[in-house]
Amino acid sequence: MAHLLGAERLHLEFPTRVVFDEVTLGIDEGDRIGIVGRNGDGKSTLLKLLAGRLEPDGGRVTTRRGVTIGMLDQADAIDPDLTVAKAVVGGIDEHVWAGDPKVRDVLAGLLGDVPWESRIGDLSGGQRRRVGLAALLVGDWDVLFLDEPTNHLDVEGIAWLARHLKARWAAGSGAVVVVTHDRWFLDEVCTATWEVHDGIVEPFEGGYAAYILQRVERDRMAAASEAKRQNLMRKELAWLRRGAPARTSKPKFRIDAANQLIEDVPPVRDPIELNRLAVSRLGKDVVDLEDVAVVYPGRAEGAAAKTVLQDVTWRIAPGERTGILGVNGAGKSTLLGLVTGRVTATAGRVKRGTTVKIATLSQELAELTEHTDRRVSDVVADLRRGYTVGSGSKAVELTPGQLLERLGFSSAQLSTPVGRLSGGQKRRLQLLLILLEEPNVLILDEPTNDLDTDMLAAIEDLLDSWPGTLLVVSHDRYLVERVTDRQIAVMDGHLRDLPRGVDQYLELRAVQATAPAARPTAPTGAAAPAEAPGASAPTSTGSPATPALAGADRRSAEKELSAIDRKLAKLATDIAAQHERLAAHDQADYVGLGALGDGLSALEGQVADLELRWLELSELLE
Predict the structure, then answer these.
(1) Label partner for 550 (CA 20 to 30 A): which of 27, 119, 208, 518?
(2) How far apart, in whole angstroms, are the C-alpha atoms of residue 539 and residue 340?
(3) How far apart are CA 144 and CA 158, in angstroms?
(4) DSSP state of 320
């Protein structure tokens, strides 16, 4: 493979620390590289160095003659007085760019809902970001550097960007280097991973999953080496201490060897651990939505009302873990508002259990606004003076400072004012404050903002052992599939169950986008429900191609459907009880935990089979 650009012995210092020291890297034709690491370790800085936007203090970056480089920077700004058209295609004649399939693909994938002649200054922040990405992708580049390109993209937009980058160049040509916290995107696009940490860049083969496997193996080998080193160090220090205190004439080489062992100890990364927090007792009833509709009146006088949700029935079970998908404006926030009580239903019934205590991790960090000038430790101490982590014989009483340290805050950060924390630190503190109020229903609204991949893994580990009901709205499909057991979509004002998860949602959206004329007319302000892929089209008389059941067959199907409903309700109770047993079980008993986990998987498998049969019967009875 031909070499495109390289970095040799890069050194960069900020006033308070060394960012990179003696870093040597190369990018070749065909490389698809993802960059991961903790927030603040230098991922974006590395992109700027390689792209030539930042000069190193030492070393150099060399580029092959004729290589063109394009970069999407988080701080890139577009002239607010430009139109979208001018910002994306410049002064190129329409017949020229409209005839380019690559340009048409970019415009359809990123700017389908953005007015072509609108001013940049009139767009939302997310739309401006997409315009900037589109303006970059319509150009011809040999190397693309992308810093968080998935920000402000929904699940469909992220899937489109992955397809575009994989098809942009012929095999073995071009190169892309991307910084993103979206782990599905890293796995889908990248064939190599660079981890930035402790002033170095460590390369790994493969995407995110392969990187994690290699990193676990690296850490295992390092642990074995550390155990041997510790044994040797103890022997060295014991030898030095042997004999009379006045004996100071030990051979110098032995003293030097012991000192070297001590100074080579690497700094411990911030431990992120929270085994279990108690939650308020949750009864059998959580929140039931029955035939609910939400209609918003027209904003202008005489404007038509807008139906956001209609005929929505959703019974949320104790311990349920559901991911909610949908395009921006589909009604996800309205649905969550019905659950929390922020939104009042126009029609239908909303019933909440008497013991329900709902908390929402929002995007706005509103919980921290009043604490901007206060120290982190003081904010947490206000809630409680002591916290019990774990249960039974494993229970440990922690002070607020100890708990914060276990959540990744260093000792120095405990006395830092909340307003001076980084975005990721604020998200961690926000989640901690919410969990310490002991809710039993937790709603996560785009929880991945400002978090690196290590922190996301830690949050997911925390949520695995959290025993309450969990509802997640996120464009991060890796997170949704990782922490939830069920996915639903808000489409055309209705809820659509997704037995096959995000892949099924993308298929439904593709059908909806390519065949709008085949859908029946919807009520005012709402579109009609999309048909599943492969569904039979109506005949010319309007009757379904598949005849409905009648007579004894129909009664038999209705009876079976009713039985499945009862079985699913019982299984939901059994699964909730199994989650409670898992949470209360001794976490050191791996055999027992494994048996409980197998039991839980078996119950969830039964649910999946019954839901599939339920869908089949429902289609026959329509």
Answers:
(1) 518
(2) 43
(3) 17
(4) -
**Burial code of 96-105, b = ≥16 C-beta within 10 A, e = fewer?**
ebeeeeebeb
Q: Do domains 3-211 and 287-518 have the same CATH topology?
A: yes
| Residues 291, 311 contacting (CB under 8 angstroms) | yes
Summarize pLDDT for 499-542 with one digit per residue, the tens: 889 999 999 888 887 754 433 333 333 333 333 333 333 333 33
**509 DSSP β-pair partners:** none
Q: Please name the residue that has the structure tokens 């019974």.
A: 315
Per-residue pLDDT band for 393 (boundaries 50, 70, 90) equals low
Q: How large is the C-alpha radius of gyration of the chain? A: 28
Using CA atoms, how far apart are residues 469 and 318, in angstroms rounded to an integer?
A: 6
Tokens, residue 21: 């020291």
Cα angle vertex 392, ends 354, 585, to 5°?
75
Estimate the share of the chain in helix, then strand, then coil, as percent rounded to the nearest 5: 45, 20, 35
* Structure tokens, 428: 């961690």
- Is 586 strand, coil or helix? coil
CB atoms within 10 A of CB 551: 7
Which two tokens mark 352? 């909440």
The DSSP code for 451 is: -
Tokens of 444: 């996560």
Per-residue buried b or exposed e for 395-408, using 16+ beta carbons within 10 Å of the residue's own CB: eeebebbebbbbbb
| Structure-token pair, residue 445 | 């609204």
Give CA–CA dist 366/12, Å, rounded: 36
| Pure H helices in 193-250 | 208-241
Task: Tell me 119's DSSP state.
Answer: B
Q: At what angle do helices 208-241 and 252-263 cross, to 10 degrees?
A: 150
The pTM of this model reads: 0.67
Give 296's strand partners.
306
What is the fold of 287-518?
Rossmann fold (3.40.50)
When pLDDT is cut at 50, 70 and 90, the band that residue 545 belongs to is very low
- Which H, E and C letters describe 151-178, residue by residue? CCCCHHHHHHHHHHHHHHCCCCCCEEEE
State the CB neighbour count (10 A cutoff) for residue 240. Answer: 17
Q: What are phi and psi of 80, to 5 degrees?
A: -65, -15
CATH number assigned to the domain with residue range 3-211, chosen from the 4 options 3.20.20.30, 3.40.50.10240, 3.40.50.300, 3.20.20.70: 3.40.50.300
Instruction: Specify whether the CB–CB gap between 502 and 474 falls below 8 A.
Output: no
The per-residue pLDDT for range 249-272, each reduced to its tens digit, is: 445 555 565 555 545 544 432 333
